[in-house]
Amino acid sequence: MPAQRTLDLGALVAYFEGSCFEVLALDHAGASLRLCREAPRPTVALAAPSVGRIGFAPGRVRLPRAGDTVQRDECLFTIRRFKASIEVKAPASGRIASLPIEPGEFVEFGQHLAAIEAT
């Protein structure tokens, strides 16, 4: 009778994560295992439409944070310029991946303001 071998699933998953494989499928003695990489979600960049200082969106007391979910056309924050205020809206629905700005920070036209993982 052949000796049974055990499979260390943790080691297999670590091997898969460190590899360049997209899919790993194993079938043996009626049991099967399939590991797949999650498809990357499209990321939408948000650039400053104008120069000015970052402010809170109307009715908000803070800027959105990475991980927050947003809806398309939701006002995320404002850019105050002279006496006018420009509402900066989410270009897509999804989750905020990064928001490398702070309230009161001066931004330039075209500067990266946020990245949103679209859903």
Brief synopsis:
The chain is mainly beta. The chain has one helix and ten strands.
Protein architecture, described:
It contains 1 helix and 10 strands; from the N terminus they run αββββββββββ. It has a 4-stranded antiparallel beta sheet, with no helix packed on it. It has 2 domains: 1-39, no CATH class; 43-118, RNA polymerase II/Efflux pump adaptor protein, barrel-sandwich hybrid domain (OB fold (Dihydrolipoamide Acetyltransferase, E2P), Beta Barrel). It is mainly β.
Provide tags for this entry.
119 residues; mainly beta; OB fold (Dihydrolipoamide Acetyltransferase, E2P); 2 domains; 4-stranded antiparallel sheet; rod-shaped
Morphology call: rod-shaped
Strand order of the largest sheet: 3-10-8-5
Provide the β-strand percentage band: 35-45%
CATH architecture of the largest domain: Beta Barrel
Low-pLDDT runs? none
Helix content range of the residues, please? under 10%
Q: Identify the CATH homologous superfamily of the largest domain.
A: RNA polymerase II/Efflux pump adaptor protein, barrel-sandwich hybrid domain
Query: Looking at CATH, which topology of the largest domain would you report?
Result: OB fold (Dihydrolipoamide Acetyltransferase, E2P)
Structural class: mainly beta
